[in-house]
Amino acid sequence: MSALRDPPSLVPYKSGGKPFSQKEITDRCNQRNIDAGMRRWNFPYAQMGADIATYHPHLIDPNSSLYCGNNAVQAIEQMFRKPKGMDKIEFHDRALKDLTATNVASKAKNVKQVVKLFNYLATRPAAEIEKDNKKKEESEKRAILEAKKAELEAAQNELQQQIYELETN
Are 121 and 115 in contact (CB under 8 A)? Predict the structure, then answer.
């Protein structure tokens, strides 16, 4: 349990004064867990490293690669095309670096469309929202009326069948 009480000794700079990479920080923290007989905590440590890199780039290089989970990998594979012959890890690292550059919307067509949608929804006029809500209510009412009409027609057909049977007897 001393591993939980004693924080890992993370000297801010490696030899030469360079900041750590995000993977190095994750690996160092995980090594402390392994030494203490605990599991690796890749996700929390990677997130911690990314957060520290964002606010303290002199300690951790924000442009260094980091470990990412399955959701991030799937998202990258849907937004970018992997060039033939490129190593999968190199592809993911380049895509992440591209995404975390200055202007995400200018880097990927699909991301740009999503950003535009969110910007539009954030500033969408109340009158337009109310109009859409009324259309939705009307279509729901119309669907209910159509279902009732179908029921009434079925009942009417059944009554006409019974009248026909009575008349033929």
Answer: no
Phi, psi of 67 (to 5 degrees): -75, 140
The mean pLDDT of 55-80, rounded to a whole number, is 74
Tens of pLDDT, residue by residue over 137-164, are 999 999 999 999 999 999 999 999 999 9
Determine which helix (DSSP H) or strand (DSSP E) holds 47, and give its type and residue range.
Answer: helix 42-55
One-letter-per-residue 3-state SS of 52-115: HHHHCCCCECCCCCCCCCHHHHHHHHHHCCCCCCCCHHHHHHHHHHHHCCCCHHHCCHHHHHHH
CA–CA dist 61, 52 (Å, integer): 9
Contact 22, 61 (CB under 8 A): yes
As a whole number of angstroms, the distance between CA 20 and CA 101 comes to 19
